[in-house]
Design a protein that fits this description.
84 residues; mainly alpha
Length: 84
Amino acid sequence: MKKILCAIVGLLLLVTFGCSSDDTKKAEEKTKEVVIEAKDTAVTVTKEAVTATKEAATAAKDKAVEMEKDAVKTTKKKATVEGC
């Protein structure tokens, strides 16, 4: 976001104080590059977050299944000891 903000401020300064046509084109290209880079970074971060969330959910599910099995074993053991 800082890169995008800097690029926008730079363009505003160029427009406000004026510059040659070539400078404007260079600034425009640089701004496009920064915006594309920011979008790519956002997509990458989002994909990494989704992957991490999926991994955490899978680990939680596996742990819940393991705890359920332990609870069943403990219940059966207790029922057997108490003579039910």
